[in-house]
Design goal:
By secondary structure, the protein is α+β, with helices and mostly antiparallel strands. It is built from eight helices and five strands.
């Protein structure tokens, strides 16, 4: 392996580990797919780097306690989900991915006679931005019927819940602009929890008692596994 390739691979290892959503085994699969065709890639070396970075990251985050920004964001999103505003963590890589994931869940909930009013999300590029430079986490949102007045109502409710969870937020009132969570510190260790599809349905099934269980989730991996 060349030094250039090692540097590039190691950067991606550190990024995937820092996201905190993916197991060591899945990180290995993601990177092998990403560098498919690199005949000089040493898989044994890659496994060692993943294991070392993963172990260090887990130890650091274990010392942080429960009051991280991510844990507070989970609390905020859980509350929004309970209010039938579908809220997704690290939903795909782009805005288009995230919108598609949200609408898929909205549709499935509708099939269970659970009518949602809107959704919100952040995607992988948003996390990358926090980790690399900005410290600002952007939250996308919309109403389920894409009505501007309803969307403003959704955005204002998201703002209220974020403030209740002690976040510093910014939004200019324009539905074309996303909500900003300022001074966000990304600290998350892998814990094996699916914070998206399964998590959302567990919350809504308990509170709103749909007529039947979802069939879609048996056929799909959690969204973050595709990231």
């Amino acid at each position: 392996m060349t030094l250039e390739l090692k540097t590039e691979v190691l950067e991606q290892v550190k990024e995937q580990v820092a996201f905190g959503f993916t197991s060591k085994e899945d990180i290995l699969e993601i990177l092998l797919d990403s560098f498919y065709g690199e005949t000089t890639l040493d898989e044994s070396w890659l496994k060692q780097q993943i294991d070392e970075q993963f172990t260090v990251h887990q130890k650091i985050n274990a010392s942080l306690g429960p009051k991280t920004d991510f844990n507070r964001l989970v609390s905020a999103f859980d509350q929004l989900n309970a209010e039938k505003i579908v809220s997704l963590h690290k939903a795909g890589y782009t805005r288009q991915d995230a919108e598609g994931d949200c609408l898929e869940i909205v549709e499935e909930l509708t099939n269970l006679d659970i009518k949602t009013s809107g959704y919100c999300y952040y995607h992988e590029q948003d996390v990358e931005s926090v980790l690399l430079s900005s410290g600002t986490l952007h939250i996308g949102y919309n109403s389920t019927d894409h009505n501007e007045t309803a969307t403003k109502t959704i955005a204002n409710r998201i703002l209220e819940v974020l403030v209740q969870n002690n976040f510093k937020v910014n939004w200019n009132g324009n539905v074309e602009n996303r909500i900003e969570i300022k001074d966000f510190k990304w600290e998350k260790a892998y814990d094996g929890v699916d914070y998206n599809y399964d998590h959302i349905f567990n919350i809504l099934e308990k509170q709103h008692k749909p007529k039947a269980k979802s069939t879609l989730k048996n056929d799909k991996k959690p969204f973050w596994k595709f990231c």
